[in-house]
């Protein structure tokens, strides 16, 4: 099974920035939309940003204007630039194919922890 591996998380101060990266294997990455999700204790995993296979992007209102998603199909990677971080951005961040998530067949990687101190 193909799995995503996330990296780049850490501790940041409010107003600071982090860059997350996610890589997967296989040869289907370029064919599908891919998204970044975040999960906090007691809540469901939520989609915060997605990018289509032709580069179209969508963002949750809570991160619009602060986060930027990008992809490199040659490297099977998707990145998330996080600016002007807020304490409410604290979460474990994951990437996956939204189609697989909606279809209930997504395989999740280990995620990367982002902690924002105020």
Topology:
Elements: E1 5-7, E2 10-13, E3 18-23, E4 34-39, E5 46-51, E6 57-59, E7 67-72, E8 77-82, E9 91-96, H1 98-102, E10 112-117
Parallel strand pairs: 2-10
Antiparallel strand pairs: 1-3, 3-8, 4-5, 4-9, 5-6, 7-8, 9-10
Largest sheet: 6 strands, mixed
The main sheet orders its strands as 2-10-9-4-5-6
Percent of residues in helices: under 10%
Coarse shape:
globular
State the separation between the terminal residues, measured CA to CA: 39 Å
What does this entry look like structurally?
- The chain has a 6-stranded mixed sheet. Strands 1-3-8-7 form a 4-stranded antiparallel sheet, with no helix packed on it.
- It has one helix at residues 98-102, and strands spanning 5-7, 10-13, 18-23, 34-39, 46-51, 57-59, 67-72, 77-82, 91-96, 112-117.
- The protein is built from 1 helix and 10 strands; from the N terminus they run E-E-E-E-E-E-E-E-E-H-E.
- By secondary structure, the protein is mainly beta.
- The longest helix has 5 residues, at 98-102.
């Amino acid at each position: 099974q193909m799995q995503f591996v996330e990296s780049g998380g850490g501790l940041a101060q409010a107003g600071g920035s982090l860059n997350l990266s996610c890589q997967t294997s296989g040869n289907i990455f370029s064919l599908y939309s891919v998204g970044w999700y975040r999960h906090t204790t007691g809540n469901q995993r939520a989609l915060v940003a997605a990018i289509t296979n032709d580069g179209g992007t969508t963002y949750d209102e809570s991160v619009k204007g602060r986060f930027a998603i990008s992809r490199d199909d040659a490297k099977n990677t998707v990145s998330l630039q996080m600016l002007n971080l807020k304490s409410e951005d604290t979460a474990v961040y994951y990437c996956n194919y939204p189609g697989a998530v909606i279809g209930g067949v997504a395989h999740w990687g280990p995620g990367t922890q982002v902690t924002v101190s105020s």
